[in-house]
């Protein structure tokens, strides 16, 4: 039995063609059912639908053999206890700083609101800038509008949400896409099944890029 942890939403939807290539088609729709463990057309594969930020934890501790989640989540969580064999090149976006359209460039000591505390600390430290990090879990765009922070660090896809709140993207920190991660013990114990799955995912990537 293989268990794959995937986050509900965009990543799940864009991962479906990779799963289908391996003959893994969910028999339940997570959008319309309350089940968190989904059966598939393969008796030996189950899907666990969880929050993106929980995927690395489930895989690291063996609650799932494999997982699909964003590189942003992996960098924030730390990947030293996981294998990361494949960039699936899905759910692509950018991790950026953003500030009010009229805000001056950052100088001196300033406040940054983000849920990516570790990434943000490393980024500004690499620039030699002094940033006080405020951790938020949502409504990031609100922070500069009410004076909670001078800027934010968040994922940007179209930039429409920023624009609607009179914010603008500033500095690109990194490009983000979703990755396949594997539990280290599972890679040893279930090597044949996992390597076969990786090769099937690679075939889908090759087909898309050719």
3D architecture notes:
This protein folds into two domains: 2-91 and 177-209, 3-Layer(aba) Sandwich (D-Maltodextrin-Binding Protein, domain 2); 93-175, 3-Layer(aba) Sandwich (D-Maltodextrin-Binding Protein, domain 2). Helix content is 33%, strand content 32%. The chain contains eight helices and eleven strands. The strands form two sheets. It has a six-stranded mixed sheet with strand order 2-3-1-4-11-5. α1 (10-21) crosses α8 (191-209). The longest helix has 19 residues, at 191-209. The mean pLDDT is 94.
| Beta-strand content estimate | 25-35%
Q: Structural class from helices and strands?
A: alpha/beta
Helix percent reads 25-40%
For the largest beta-sheet, the strand count, sense and barrel status come to: 6 strands, mixed
Count of individual beta strands: 11
Number of domains: 2
Any idea of the CATH topology of the largest domain?
D-Maltodextrin-Binding Protein, domain 2
N→C terminal distance = 32 Å
- CATH architecture tag of the largest domain: 3-Layer(aba) Sandwich
Q: Tell me the CATH superfamily of the largest domain.
A: Periplasmic binding protein-like II
The parts where pLDDT drops under 50 for at least 5 residues are none
Features:
single chain; alpha/beta; six-stranded mixed β-sheet; 33% helix
In summary, what is this structure?
The protein is α/β, with parallel strands linked by helices. The protein has 8 helices and 11 strands. Helix content is 33%, strand content 32%.
């Amino acid at each position: 039995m293989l268990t794959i942890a995937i986050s509900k939403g965009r990543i799940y939807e864009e991962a479906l063609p990779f799963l289908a290539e391996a003959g893994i088609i969910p028999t339940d729709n997570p959008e319309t059912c309350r089940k968190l463990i989904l059966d598939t057309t393969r008796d030996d594969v189950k899907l666990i639908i969880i929050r993106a930020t929980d995927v690395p934890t489930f895989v690291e501790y063996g609650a799932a053999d494999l997982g699909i989640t964003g590189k942003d989540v992996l960098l924030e969580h730390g990947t030293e206890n996981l294998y990361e064999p494949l960039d699936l090149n899905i759910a692509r976006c950018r991790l950026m700083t953003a500030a009010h359209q009229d805000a001056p460039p950052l100088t001196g000591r300033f406040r940054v609101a983000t849920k990516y505390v570790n990434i943000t600390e490393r980024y500004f430290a690499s620039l030699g800038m002094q940033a006080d990090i405020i951790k938020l879990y949502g409504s990031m765009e609100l922070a500069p509008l009410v004076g909670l922070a001078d800027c934010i660090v968040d994922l940007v896809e179209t930039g429409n949400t920023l624009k609607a709140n009179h914010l603008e993207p500033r500095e690109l920190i990194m490009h983000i896409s979703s990755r396949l991660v594997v539990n280290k013990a599972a890679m040893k114990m279930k090597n044949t099944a996992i390597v076969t799955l990786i090769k099937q995912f690679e075939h889908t990537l090759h087909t898309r890029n050719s």
